[in-house]
Amino acid sequence: MHRVVIVGAGFGGLFAARALRRADVEITLINGTAYHLFQPLLYQVATGILSEGEIAPPIREILRKQDNVDVRLGWVTGVDAAAKKVSVEAPGLEYEVEYDTLIVAAGASQSYFGNDQFADHAPGMKSIDDALELRARIFGAFELADLQTDPEAVERWLTFVVVGAGPTGVEMAGQIAELAHRTLPGQYKRIDPRKARVILVDAIDAVLTSFGDQLATRALRQLHLLGVEVELKTKVVGVDATGIDVETPRGHERIGSMTKMWAAGVAAPPLAKALAEATGAPTDRAGRIEVRPDLTVPGHPEIFAVGDMMSLDGLPGVAQVAIQGGRYAADQIKRRLAGKEPRGPFKYLDKGSMATISRFSAVASVGRFRFSGFIGWLMWLAVHLLYLVGFKNRVTAVLHWAVSFLGRGRSERVSTFQQAFARAAVREYGDPFERLPQPHRHP
Amino acid sequence: MHRVVIVGAGFGGLFAARALRRADVEITLINGTAYHLFQPLLYQVATGILSEGEIAPPIREILRKQDNVDVRLGWVTGVDAAAKKVSVEAPGLEYEVEYDTLIVAAGASQSYFGNDQFADHAPGMKSIDDALELRARIFGAFELADLQTDPEAVERWLTFVVVGAGPTGVEMAGQIAELAHRTLPGQYKRIDPRKARVILVDAIDAVLTSFGDQLATRALRQLHLLGVEVELKTKVVGVDATGIDVETPRGHERIGSMTKMWAAGVAAPPLAKALAEATGAPTDRAGRIEVRPDLTVPGHPEIFAVGDMMSLDGLPGVAQVAIQGGRYAADQIKRRLAGKEPRGPFKYLDKGSMATISRFSAVASVGRFRFSGFIGWLMWLAVHLLYLVGFKNRVTAVLHWAVSFLGRGRSERVSTFQQAFARAAVREYGDPFERLPQPHRHP
């Protein structure tokens, strides 16, 4: 039986596996976590709207009715393109899996543009751990502000800086502003949460650049209405415990802030480099694999790279590119096995982009049409509801979400101090593979 | 204005604060976390039924309509009974709060009976971090079992040991068995989750001893029906990475198991010792404050100790004792302020005990009546539903819970590797107060 190995259960890998559900193949789907992460809603976990379970269904549950797939936990660390096998690390063991066709869809990592030390003070927005850490820091900041006696300290604790004005950054900034203005007022004796400053910083000169000028302008207006301060053409040159240093058009400035978050850049994961070395494939500046028009790695028609880790015609790193890429690769495999002509080059169909800015306000771009405000928000809601319902089939999760999102409350405000500082402890503690009684590794 | 300081927002502290809502007092409620923890459902977080947010509403939200209370984050580290003030540590700062009346309700800690090294391998069941760590270990065990090639290793990963056959241990064991038999079958290629062994161990000779012989016997039968192996008169003498050593009536035995959990003992928190030293109050063997019949500390009628950290007439460490104690203390304060006669000694009204063993099966003891099986379960459900609805006022949470609990799925299966090993890393990393850029401390 033809063996298909899929690396990564993000949008690309998962949709490839599903598209092969009736194919006469043996699929091994290898992922570093047991769940698929619905990344576009990660910011809602960080801001207390959703629980982590609601955006991260177990892969085994999604694919439980698909008999031709074997889900395996592990991190693919290497590819042997000659022997057609991948090597995998899992907690406490290593294994290899042979393939006839390989689909690599390992996503992207956060990039700090060479300033990895920023990560200690400005967590990224890529994983559940990131979101829970940010949740702990955001809600913790209001608690700690309330305890300060020095007015400057209060101000630092009530200043939130979001770096990166793409969809994730815009959505985070909007939700923190809503939290400060809508959820928390009246709950503190000494501070007024409405005095919190939310500052959205980006080096370029617009928010949501991928949405086009018209929506960018509307998004900017909606952010201003929410009270978000947007600092464009502003480059972050330093991040430390108590603030952030920026180069603005006005010159160098220092923003005092205890709570910073990073939604600014992505880089190819380590596996992209390993794959490039194994196959001689070229990579772009971000380290992504430059694939052929049919998404295969040059010289290796049996290896597809899809989603955020591949580079082709400047396609954006969005869920739809990964989903369509995964399906395209699956289709090519089915055609090959059936002896049919291969499909033509991969064509990305832009189904539109949308970003929610606050309750009742979003921007959406669909084909030639642009929507913003309430209409944009309704569209955003419809698409996400449909997706969640269809994908997770959990009525209560959607209800929970609708109620939290429509109401003023945040039902998932809980976080622990451990979550707030585990990352730093774990990094310094060292590789738990080596040290822990029950070995586990942070993916 | 009369100043009441309440230490701890568990059942005792929270109900004391609410009972004082119409009193002419200024309340300061100090707690180490921003949330109240509904501890009786912690095992449902650990086994993927509920999210942590659903059992831990923010204290500020619960008390948002009560103007006479000031909620403050912090750990009370000392009491100055002469100057009538408490000293508090919070992340990055220390402060003091003066009181006219003090209610100390700081709960209990996990006790390993002098074997604290067991904690590394057998997490307790006291905090959200505990529950998330256990969730990561339990679900991770099935993932890792599926990857093992050595049959003995598979068996070790599929063996779960719960130490302590009180309500928490019984409920944990029951839920892991249900997980193995009801939720996970069919989701793995190489293992059969139904082959998982769940072993419940206790040094005494019955489960649920506080429920009386009749219910203990029924609970034992229900556990057997679920496939749980119950090992009584079995003392744990060692816990390490790959198993547990026990002294059984048959002699010394070794149980190979990668996943152990500890629900066996409680000890007074460090604050009990500080309070005893500050007031000269006697303590019992577990370190709990021996209070006078009116719940005050001997020689200090202005200091009440309620809930798990006080010792009186052998009252059990259950939520109802804390709730009634908190209300009693509040009532005494109101009487004193009104110049009324004090109430007589604190009388605990046993409203009954219940423990759920599996879906559709529980044991309940109410007054002279004993219920078990489906009737017991309906009672358990009704009480918890009423409590959750009344207390948290969140219809969706209850719906979510009902659907998860009635269905086969577990909607909160997500956990991260970081959660699985953060405790060990954090402990070795040292006090984050000293080291972290944004200081936080594990309570």
Note the main attributes of this structure.
homodimer; 443 residues; alpha/beta; 6-stranded mixed sheet; 4-stranded parallel sheet; 34% helix; 24% strand; globular; disordered C terminus
Short overview:
The structure is a homodimer. Chain A is an alpha/beta fold.
Element layout with pairings:
Two copies of one chain form a homodimer.
Chain A: E1 2-7, H1 11-19, E2 25-31, H2 42-46, H3 59-62, E3 69-73, E4 75-80, E5 85-90, E6 93-98, E7 101-104, E8 109-110, H4 128-145, H5 151-157, E9 159-163, H6 167-183, E10 197-201, H7 213-226, E11 228-231, E12 235-240, E13 243-248, E14 251-256, E15 259-262, E16 266-267, H8 270-279, E17 289-290, E18 296-297, E19 300-305, E20 310-311, H9 319-337, E21 353-358, E22 361-366, E23 369-372, H10 373-392, H11 395-406, H12 417-429, H13 432-435
Parallel strand pairs in A: 1-2, 1-7, 2-3, 7-19, 9-10, 9-15, 10-11, 17-20
Antiparallel strand pairs in A: 4-5, 5-6, 8-16, 12-13, 13-14, 18-19, 21-22, 22-23
Overview of this protein structure:
The structure is a homodimer of 443-residue chains. Chain A has a six-stranded mixed beta sheet, covered by helices on one side. The longest helix of chain A is centred in the C-terminal third of the chain and has 20 residues, at 373-392. Chain A is globular. Chain A is built from 13 helices and 23 strands. Chain A is 34% helix and 24% strand. The model of chain A is unreliable at 431-443 (pLDDT under 50). Chain A has helices at 11-19, 42-46, 59-62, 128-145, 151-157, 167-183, 213-226, 270-279, 319-337, 373-392, 395-406, 417-429, 432-435, and strands spanning 2-7, 25-31, 69-73, 75-80, 85-90, 93-98, 101-104, 109-110, 159-163, 197-201, 228-231, 235-240, 243-248, 251-256, 259-262, 266-267, 289-290, 296-297, 300-305, 310-311, 353-358, 361-366, 369-372. In chain A, helix 1 links the parallel strand 1 (2-7) and strand 2 (25-31). Chain A has 443 residues and is of the alpha/beta class.
